[in-house]
Amino acid sequence: MSDADDPDRVARAALTRVIEPGDERGGRWLREFGAPEVLARLAGPESGAVELTGATPRRLAAFRARAREAATSRDLAAIGEANGRFICPGDQEWPTQLDDLGDARPLGLWVRGRPDLRAWALRSVAIVGARACTPYGAHMAAVLGSGLAERGWVVVSGAAFGVDGAAHRGALGADGATVAVLACGVDTVYPRGHAELIGRIAEQGLLVGELPPGDHPTPSRFILRNRVIAALTRGTVVVEAQYRSGSLVTARCAQRLGRHTMGIPGPATSGLSAGVHELLRGEGVLVTDVDEIVELVGEMGELAPARRGPVLPRDLLDEVSTRVLEAVPARGAVDCARLARIAGTVPEETLGKLYGLHALGFVERHGDYWQLTDQAIRGSNARRGGS
Question: Least crowded by CB within 10 Å, which of 68, 110, 121, 350?
Fold first, then answer.
């Protein structure tokens, strides 16, 4: 059956021109009456539209005007010409995790790209952050994007300047998978400066949006788009964000949906990291690399390696040998009896430990006296420098 022969699909495609993304009132109408009936009431006699409760007469009039102007066949033809498709709930490709949004879930999604969105979304991570990011933020986003792609994860972001673009480029540079969730039609290039990047994503990954072909973004649509990014993915990583950053909207939506929410720390003096740090003071989890992200969003047992400083030769000594070695002064030599008193051991045991330390290159003997080797002095300085 073609798209034009599926009443629910046709109605949902038409309603993407009528109802704004994330409109829970519209979502409730679809749940109660079904998409074809909602469209019929909006496009038909005014009395039918009045039965759609929860909207003011002025709002219903705006919906009706949009419904009358919707040209669904034209939109479906346009997405076909762009090598895309329109998917909706119930389709095999529909990512069912979007249903967690309840009445705010998308009416449907316009998609460009060959891969299957449902399959990709099952193993995806969102990387979001500031548009006017610092070089540090751009570097971290690119490194995380490439690292996740190399581990077989799909990188999801919004194709904006700054962190979003760096994350997409990192994934593409690793010949990996990436999805851009747009706040406009998937055949519309926005921002214009990312024309080449968006073109590459369409060829190598997926472009996804709630708005029909040709539609343009607005500030509110960017904010509402973020809920799709949060719901679509296993977790959201915020790289840099001010207190009022839209990427924090994504993170908080992810929290409400029970998704993993992560943040990359930055300098305490950086305003661009202030929002991330506030997130980390709450439910967000601090992460610094791909291993730590995968530990959260991956399968059981995908643990990040234990983090610790380098193992120094002194760390391998037993307790008594350590005490004897610490009793040897940094300069000059001392006899065994004095070392025993300082270390709290008997002379015989001290002498045995000194011979062991001598074999390991920590001390050297001069007659009845013992002193540190140059190697031991350097090791002691290095240890103090790392403490």
Answer: 68
User: Facing residues of 86 across strands?
Assistant: 110
Domain ranges of the chain: 3-71, 96-297, 313-385
- CB 27, CB 105: distance < 8 Å: yes
Please write the tens of the pLDDT for every residue from 192-241: 999 999 999 999 999 999 999 999 999 999 999 999 999 999 999 999 99
Same fold, 96-297 and 313-385: no
Do residues 203 and 83 touch, judged by C-beta distance below 8 A?
no
Q: For residues 34 and 15, what is the distance between their CA atoms, to the nearest angstrom? A: 11
Q: Render pLDDT for 268-280 as a digit per residue (tens, 0 to 9).
A: 999 999 999 999 9
pTM assigned to the model: 0.84
Distance CA 271, CA 240 (A): 9
Q: Which CATH number fits domain 96-297: 3.40.50.300, 3.30.300.30, 3.40.50.450, 3.40.50.2000?
A: 3.40.50.450
Name the phi and psi angles at 89, rounded to 5: -50, 135
Nearest to residue 180, comparing CAs of 108, 117, 130? 117
